Each structure stands twice: as C-alpha cells, then as structure tokens.
TrEMBL record:
Species, as recorded: Terrimonas ginsenosidimutans
Pfam families: Acetyltransf_6
Name of the molecule in the record: GNAT family N-acetyltransferase
Entries under InterPro entries matching the protein: Acyl_CoA_acyltransferase, BioF2-like_GNAT_dom
Domain BioF2-like acetyltransferase: 144-264
Residues spanning the membrane: none
Length: 308
C-alpha cells in the first residue's frame, strides 16, 4: 500500500533559508542549483515544498504568462526536484501532489536521485555526463579517446596555452555570442548569472579557465562552479577559430590536469545533443541520468495555443 507524506507549501517569504540550505548541503543528491542563494539569483520567482523540519525540500521555480502561473527551469539550473535522504516513489508523489493547483503547466528537470516510478506522473529521462577525478592525471589522460588526445596535442603544436582566473566578463561575452546562433538569451538572465558568479567567486566556489591562441586571442573558455564535491561545467564560451585548434579539448584537459587525484566529480551538465554527448564521453565521462517532468493542466484553448 502506498504511503502519503504530509508536505507543506511555503511561499518564498515563509521559507527558512538557513534550514533550506542545510537540507541541500546534507542531501545525498544535493547540487549547487538547489541552494537558496542560487535560486534567489537565477529564478524569476521561487517558493518551496517542505517535508518535516526541512528533511526534504523541493523548490518551485515559477513565472506567469497571460495571467497563468507555471513551473519552469531557470537559466543555468540543470537539475532541481526533490532533495533529501531516503527518497522513495511515495515521497516524490506526495511532493508532486502538494504542488498548488494554480501552477497549470510544468516543464521542469528533477535530479539523478529522482529516477523513480511515480504514479500519475510520467517522468522522462535526460542525459548527463560526469567524470570522477580521483585518479592520477596519467590514468585519466589514458582513458581519453585517441581523437581527444590528438586534439590536445594539436592545440599545443599551434602554440595555444591554458590560463585560469581570467575575467568572467570575457567568458560571458563569448558565451552570449555563441548562444545567438541557437537561441536569444535574455539580458536579464545574463545579468542574474553575473551577480551569481560574483557571489560564488567571493566564496571561492567559482573559477574561469581559458585557452589563448598563439596571438593571445581567447578561443575557448569556461566558468566552473564548485559544491558537493562536484565541479560544474556551467557556462562555456568558444570562439569559432578554436574549433580547428582543439581548444575545447585543451581547456577541459587543463582543468582535469589541475584537479586530478581529488575527490571531485566533473559534471558536464548534459547532454541530450548527440555531438555534445560524444564530446563529453571522449574524456572518459560516464552517463549519470536524471529525470524530468512535463505536465499540462491548461484550459483546452490554451493547450491548443501552446502547440502552435
């Protein structure tokens, strides 16, 4: 027989953010995106569901359109969902059942410990790739695909070199230019991310890496965040000239070389895109899948409009 757990819905003002963050810090499936400081910066609005004395929590990141509230996934927040220990299908269902009915449409990503069958909620699977760095650099390098090793050598032959602690604005500028080819990212989201980076950099939880060409042009770059023994490959900015120079391979290799032998998991944050999945796996990264959920309770006339 299934069990129903009592879950409280709290508006943002009602949440005890210290208790919330203690839950995220101590959860087996805790990730940086679940902390209140991350949500405060990256979510347009967020409330929360709480079990017990913050024994398990679920952020509800939301916005409104046409006067209707909906749940969405904030920019650069790859996984949310239910955080805590001793998670079960019944507990997840209780959390989902407790989502207020005013949220008529859900399109959210959960996390790698929410991969459970949940009655009445059709979860689907998304791909992530992670690489444990708790081996020597030589062992990690030997696990790269041959093509990856060739690209790293080619980068050195062309006079490229790795640098770190570069200005975040340089990475963000490249990233935004790259995004314009695929999507139009809002200025608001970029400004939110800049403020989040400043906070995490002050806490020594963020670092920027780059690859310079022989002419000192930044051709590959990335911002990494740190928490829960994970390094998050959070925002990537690449110059078109770097594609033929093996720059992206060299950048990740530089990070791995600096952090090899540590109890750290390099989290690539995806991807369901085949080419990216192949790229990440070429470093020896393995799949760590997570769940996601779409739910449409909109009136029929808005459901039709949503499909258009």
């Amino acid at each position: 027989m299934s069990r129903h757990y009592p879950i409280k819905y709290l508006t943002n003002k009602e949440i005890d953010q210290q208790k919330w963050d203690r839950c995220i810090a101590g959860a087996k499936n805790g990730v940086i995106y679940g902390y209140s400081y991350y949500l405060n910066q990256m979510a347009i609005h967020w409330d929360g569901l709480v079990f017990g004395d913050y024994d398990a929590v679920m952020p509800l990141t939301w916005n409104k359109k046409y006067g209707i509230a909906y749940l969405y996934q904030p920019f650069l927040a790859a996984q949310l969902g239910v955080f805590g220990n001793d998670l079960s299908s019944d507990l997840l269902r209780s959390f989902f059942d407790a989502v207020p009915s005013r949220f008529r449409h859900w399109d959210i990503y959960l996390n790698h410990h929410n991969l459970l069958p949940v009655e009445n909620y059709p979860l689907y699977i998304r791909k992530n790739f992670v690489l444990p760095l708790n081996q020597s650099y030589e062992q990690l390098y030997n696990a790269y695909r041959e093509n990856t090793q060739r690209n790293i050598k080619k980068s050195k032959q062309f006079g490229c070199r790795a640098i770190k602690d570069i200005e975040a604005d340089r990475v963000i500028e490249l990233a935004v230019a790259q995004m314009r080819h695929y999507t139009k990212e809002s200025t608001d989201n970029i400004e939110r991310f800049k403020m989040l980076y400043d906070q995490l950099h002050q806490r020594k939880q963020a670092i920027c890496y780059g690859i310079l060409s022989a002419k000192d042009i930044l051709i590959a770059s990335c911002i990494f965040f740190f928490s829960h023994n994970r390094a998050y490959y959070i925002l990537v900015g690449n110059h078109p000239d770097g594609r033929t120079l093996g720059a992206s391979h060299a950048l990740i290799d530089a990070f791995i070389q600096d952090h090899a032998g540590r109890d750290l998991l390099l989290d690539f944050e995806g991807s369901d895109v085949r080419n990216l999945a192949f790229f990440y796996s070429s470093f020896g990264a393995v799949e760590e899948n997570y769940s996601a959920l779409r739910l449409n309770r909109l009136p029929f006339y808005l459901r039709w409009a949503k499909k258009e």
